Amino acid sequence: MHVRQIAIPSHHTLAIATGMAATSPPMRSVAVAAAAALLLIPSPTLNRISFPSSRRRCPSASALRWRPARCRGKPAVTDVVDEEDEERETSPDAKLDDVRGWFVLDEIGMDIVSIALPAALALAADPITALIDTAFVGHIGSAQLAAVGVSLSIFNLVSKLLNVPLLNVTTSFVAEQQALDADYTSAAERDGISSPQEKSGDQRKFLPAVSTSLALAAGIGLMEMMALILGSGTLIDIVGIPTDSPMRVPAEQFLTLRAYGAPPVIVALAAQGAFRGFKDTRTPLFAVVAGNLVNALLDAIFIFPLGLGVSGAALATVASEYLTAFILLWKLNSQIVLFSWNIVAGDIIRYLKSGALLIARTIAVVLTFTVSTSLAAREGSVPMAGYEICLQVWLTISLLNDALALAGQALLASEYAKGNYKKARIVLYRVLQIGGVTGVALATTLFLGFGYLSLLFTDDPAVLDVAQTGIWFVTISQPINAVAFVADGLYYGVSDFAFAAYSTLFAGTVSSAVLLVAAPKFGLGGIWAGLTLFMSLRAIAGFWRIGSKGGPWKTIWSETEGDRSSRRKTTTRLERNRRRKRKKMPCLNVSTNVNLDGVDTSAVLADASKTVADIIGKPENYVMVVLKGSVPMAFGGTQDPAAYGELVSIGGLNPDVNKKLSAAIASILESKLSVPKKRFYLKFYDSKVCSSHFLLTVHSWVFFAM
């Protein structure tokens, strides 16, 4: 049985609840039926309240329990799952609909496509810009072109190790926090609670994940810049360019100037992660395209008319990166409070832990491809050229798969944070479906058009023959690549960063061993087989992880198996964030045996709310006060005017503050309700040790107002 939402007079609230609690189990059903019949009678002075579902942890299936109002102001009805929906989800018709859905691009499928397409264009903009830079620098001279290539390789390696993990972590955390903020905002609007920003006229949201990400990005960017400037000579020595080489001077010049672009690059990526968390990929596309156009324009001005050469190319790139970062921050600032000193240390630790795992994953990927490239170089210049053509084609078309992974990550993170596991499963199905179709389409396109595409890179028949052989491996692996990339996005969507890192490390280790053994025997065929194995192991790991229902996936899949108890026992990320929210929203519940019919209750509530807010230093509109009258109670053996109160979520138990609160509230009750101070009993609850559904105190201070 589910009592979803009912309306009762305020002076009957606790009486009905305590009456049911006092009856024996056989009588509870009668009490519930009588109460329900009574509640059907309309009354002009009804207040809407919520009772929890009888499926909560009750001794009897028919027992109802009363609990104080939730501090976040959201009715308990939102925590009750409609059994009809659950039965529908597990019915044969629902399963058949799911199967049919694989062949239909529904609303969620369209959401995935609408997020992925702009993201793919934004991802493709950077390689295109690199080609433009290469074209300009190539007209200066071969030594300068080679020097820029080496410097870019160093810069990209350092940036990729740190920037990409921050981008992916930011996307997941911002999507999660955006979903939670929307949840709280809707509840606040329903309950008439205004945030401090709304009260001051500032409509921007405050999402700590954005502030934390930007702060970390700025710090990491400055460290990257200093490391590249101070260590440019050492890094160039490591890659093997001697001091007497004609490439040495232009390489150091380009890398030193390019280092000044490290801060805007990583800040822009953090901002892109925030927009991706909002499921907005159009704004980053606009900013990236604008920056790249400026880069091309400045290249044409700095390199030749001003005669700056390689230094001009670096300055043009840095200027465009600052422009991109400025556009993104400007647009983001119109929606979000960018910087705040209220950054929680726990959020920073969470970023660092997740980022460290993804750094390990990135290292595994980079090392695997480094091993394959070095082995291909040992085969000779012609095989290496053919290998490079196939690899560049492979990396370019993988941008589509990356974009799909991004869309799946943002949507899954949002639904998972809200606890909407049914929709999360639909997102999972759809992104895998679209990924599989995309992989097959890319494979078909490459198979039919690679002969024409390869002519864009070279006209050497020997190189084209080698590339034509390698394209078979590239084509066959496309569906596998799509699944592997999408699986990465799904990992990130549920913050399963640990498995993403460990599975990639395992796949990279096994594949590198195969490469080292197969390449000497089978040449490029062995290299492509090793890379295909690398992607296959990642795809298999994704299917196994998602299907095994381990870690965070257990929560998503538990309801499909009818295991309702698993959902109640598992503390989700949504519940943890709600607990944090409750700490910031104090809740005062007062019950009295005084009849409130002739009392100005609005004045009592206003005075109590202001008093609590002033003493604990919280905004008044974040303090909830609940007052119940005509509640049967005996105090000291008499039924003279008395009151009982509970103060929840005041941010910790402080005896001095609690004494002030008890005295102040007692004064209000004495002046407004004629309740003697000595007959008021106030109990304090620490939100850190309360359960999520029933407020069970582990320790508290209790004061009689004297």
Top keywords for this entry?
transmembrane helix; transmembrane; disordered C terminus; DinF-like; two-stranded antiparallel ribbon; single chain; Macrophage_inhib_fac; Protein DETOXIFICATION; 706 residues; disordered N terminus; mainly alpha
Task: Describe the model.
It is found in: Membrane. Keywords: Membrane, Transmembrane, Transmembrane helix. The chain is mostly helical. The protein has 4 domains: 6-66 and 72-101, no CATH class; 110-190 and 204-334, no CATH class; 344-395 and 420-570, no CATH class; 585-704, 2-Layer Sandwich (Macrophage Migration Inhibitory Factor), CATH 3.30.429.10. Helix content is 68%, strand content 5%. The protein has 25 helices and 7 strands. The protein has a 5-stranded mixed beta sheet with strand order 4-3-5-6-7, covered by helices on one side. Strand 3, helix 24 and strand 4 (624-628) form a beta-alpha-beta unit. Helix 14 (345-377) runs parallel beside helix 19 (497-522), helix 15 runs parallel beside helix 17 and helix 16 runs antiparallel to helix 18. The chain starts with 5 loop residues before the first strand and ends with a strand.
Kindly summarize this structure in a few lines.
The protein has 706 residues and is mainly α.
Our Rg estimate from Cα atoms comes to 31 Å
Quaternary structure state of the chains depicted: single chain
Number of domains: 4
**Main sheet specs:** 5 strands, mixed
Helix percent reads 55-70%
Q: How many H/I helices? A: 25
Proportion of strand residues: under 5%
What would the principal axes of the Cα set say about the shape? elongated
Instruction: Return residue spans where pLDDT drops below 50 for at least 5 consecutive residues.
Output: 1-90, 190-200, 561-571, 687-706
State the end-to-end CA separation.
45 Å
* Helix-and-strand structural type: mainly alpha
**How many strands?**
7
User: Strand order within the widest sheet?
Assistant: 4-3-5-6-7
Rounded average pLDDT: 73
GO molecular function, one term: antiporter activity
InterPro entries: DinF-like, Macrophage_inhib_fac, MATE_fam, Tautomerase/MIF_sf
Keywords: Membrane, Transmembrane, Transmembrane helix
Organism: Leersia perrieri
